[in-house]
Amino acid sequence: MPIDRRTVLLAAGGTGVSAILGGSSAAAEALSPGLPKIELRYAFSVSIFFKERISIRSNRGRAFVPAEGGEVWGPRLKGRVLPYGGADYAASSILDAHYQLQADDGTLIYINNRGTMKRLSSPPNSPQPVVPLQAGEKLSQVMEGSAAADVPLRMRLTPIFDAPIGPHDWLNRTLIVGHGARYVGPDHTIFSYYEVL
Amino acid sequence: MREFTVPPVTTRNERGEVKPEYAFQLRARFEPVYETHTSRGTRLYQDIAAGELTGRITGKVYPDSGGEYGLLRADGVEDINQRFMINTRDGEWIYIAHSGYRRRKDGYYRVQANFDADLRGNYAWLNDAVWIAAVERSADGKSSTYTYFELT
Lengths: 197, 152
Hints:
- The complex is a heterodimer.
- Chain A is mostly beta strands.
- Chain A has a domain at 40-125 and 147-196: Porin, CATH 2.40.160.
- Chain A has helices at residues 5-13, 16-21, 25-31; strands at 40-50, 54-56, 62-73, 79-88, 94-103, 108-119, 151-157, 160-162, 176-183, 188-196.
- In chain A, strands 1-3-4-5-6-7-9-10 form an 8-stranded antiparallel barrel.
- Chain A is globular, with a radius of gyration of 21 Å.
- The two termini of chain A are 22 Å apart.
- Chain B is mainly β.
- Chain B has one domain (32-151): Porin, CATH 2.40.160.
- At the A-B interface, strand 1, strand 3, strand 4, strand 6 and strand 9 of A face strand 1, strand 7, strand 8, strand 9 and strand 10 of B.
C-alpha cells in the first residue's frame, strides 16, 4: 500500500513513534515517515520454580524441566502457577514450555511459553560436544549448570494463552511478548510479559 | 492436587527491559479472500500477489508463494496464520511466518514474525531475534503494510 501524502501528514502530527523508538527515531522516520505506533505495556510476571533438569542429547537437544509451582503478579493478572502443572520441553535454544496458571479468582489459564534463549557467557548456539561413553559407563542425563550463580541467559518470549471467556479472555486476543531471567538457589526463572498495544 | 509453597526470593520485582526497535517495512498486495466454514471456525484464504520490503531488508515477496490462512474465531478475532517467501535484492531466499491476532471490533492487528534465513548469508540475524509487527490493512483487504520491530 503506497503511503500517500495525507498519511504522511497525519503521522507527522503524532508523537508516538519518536517517543517509542528513542535514539533510532530520526533514522527510522527518515526511512519511513508513516511508521505506525507500537507500544509495550507491562502486564504481569510469573515465577517458576523447577524441580529438576533432564537433558536428552538427541539431534534436537531436548530438555525436560518440570515446574513445581510459582507465583503470578502484576497489573493485569494475579495468581499462581498450578503446582506440578507443566514443564519446559526446550530444544537447543528454543523454549517450549506448557503450564497451567491459576488466577486469584480460580480461573485456569493455559500458557504455551514459546521463545528463544541464548547463553550470554558463551558464543550463541555453540554446540556442546557430545563425548561417546566409555565401556561400562552409565549415561548421565542430569543437566549440568552452575548452581553457584545466576545463569546469564537472554530470553525473549512470544507466549500463547488459552483463557476461558470472561475477565481473562483478553489473553486470547492480544499479542504478548516477554523476557525471562534465570536464578539459582532455588532454581527458578522469572518471566515478565508485556501487551503489544 | 499436590501443593507447592513458593520460597521467598529476593529477585521478585525483577523486570528488565524490552524495547521494540524499528527494522523494516513490507507493503503487500493480496488477492480476494476465500472463506471456508470448518469445524474450527472460518478459514480465510488469501493469496499473496506481491510485496516490497524496505529498510534493513530490501527485496520482494515472491508472487504466489503463499499467503494468509487465518482462522476467524467465534469471538470475532482472527488467528493470523501467514507464510510466504521473500526474495532479497541480493538474491537470497527468506521464509517468513506470521502468527497473531486481528480483531474485527477495534481493528487491532499485531503479529509475531518468524524468519528462516540462510546461516551463510546476509540475513542470518533474522533467525535469532524476536520480531513483532504492526499491521495496517486497507479497507478492501487487498493490501497490508507490515512494520517490523525487533524486540531488543
